[in-house]
Amino acid sequence: MDFIKITCSSRTDWLPKPSSIVMTKAEISNMFEALYQTFVELGSVICEGLVNHFLLKDWKM
To answer: Whole-prediction pTM value?
Structure first.
């Protein structure tokens, strides 16, 4: 059970191709960790107050 099926559902006329993929839990975790890191890096340049907010610090991995 190391694999997860990810499905994209559009709320517009756009149709995703493919509409679903299968990935390992590790791949998904790595993607979210990279997204989080990028968010924090950009946030520290654009809005330092945001990345230093206590709620975001509690969210950090």
So the answer is: 0.68
